Amino acid sequence: MKNSNPIIIFENIEKNFGSLKVLKGITGEIQSGEVVAVIGASGCGKSTLLRCFNRLERIDHGSLVVNGMELSQPNFQTQQLRQLRTQVGMVFQQFNLFPHLSVLENLTLAPRKVLGKTAKESAQIAGLYLEKVGLFDKASAYPEQLSGGQKQRVAIARSLCMNPQIMLFDEPTSALDPELVGEVLQVMQQLAAEGMTMVVVTHEMQFAKEVAHRVIFMDKGVVAEQGAAYEVITNPQSDRLRTFLSRLDKV
């Protein structure tokens, strides 16, 4: 991991949904090449924070800079948004694959439409990343023919086809049967080992402890505790984090 080279900088950011204050003045940064796990109970704001990083949600207050782009500026242009989305890949809980397209077509659509790649170039890129996630033989299959773990690996490969500098994962294993979780985490672990900047909202504490450089624990819209991943998870300092971790152990 490279030090002192922040690729995401957020300062005093707030996000409200009507009268509900979801993010309450959060400040921090993500370093280039860093893997950060964001943990916390449902409704604490962690997924909202992640969605702000690629402007799926607009912040209401504060400053947010992602890969040199100031996302909080009011006149943010469509062209800038397109540029941002090529640089920041996102993997969702529910895969979000196009059901009417084959695996290969799911992967080649954005490189052709957004990056201007030819059909041949897009297919070559797709093949490379399908190989990477162990699904080269599924190129002609449709999403309904895949297991949940395979769908999520395809979703990861689809994001990688855009050659992003940052990958965001919003609870990527929460919709999977327990026996399928490992195959997705293995792909994510490989990406981390290759130096991909990753922000991962997760309940997989073993993954966070072993793979993440740092953990951010959120509680009721604020950062309640953060630090080196292994240290935070094995030696929590706050009662709130201790309670959260103990509840996970009992699940």
Structure description:
It comes from Nostoc cycadae WK-1. Belongs to the ABC transporter superfamily. GO terms for molecular function: ABC-type amino acid transporter activity; ATP binding; ATP hydrolysis activity. The structure is a single chain. It is built from nine helices and ten strands. With 251 residues, the chain is of the alpha/beta class. The chain has one domain: P-loop containing nucleotide triphosphate hydrolases (Rossmann fold), CATH 3.40.50. Strand 4 and strand 5 form a beta hairpin. Helix 3 crosses helix 4 and helix 5 runs parallel beside helix 6.
Helix/strand order, N-terminal first: EEEHEEHEHHHEHEHEEHH
Give the class from helix and strand content and strand pairing. alpha/beta
Uncertain residue segments: none
Proportion of residues in β-strands: 25-35%
- Strands, count: 10
Radius of gyration: 18 Å
- Provide the domain count: 1
CATH class: Alpha Beta
Distance between termini? 33 Å
The CATH topology corresponds to Rossmann fold
- Biggest sheet layout: 6 strands, mixed
Q: If helices are DSSP runs of H or I spanning 4 or more residues, what is the number of helices?
A: 9
Question: Helicity range of the residues?
Answer: 25-40%
| Global morphology | globular
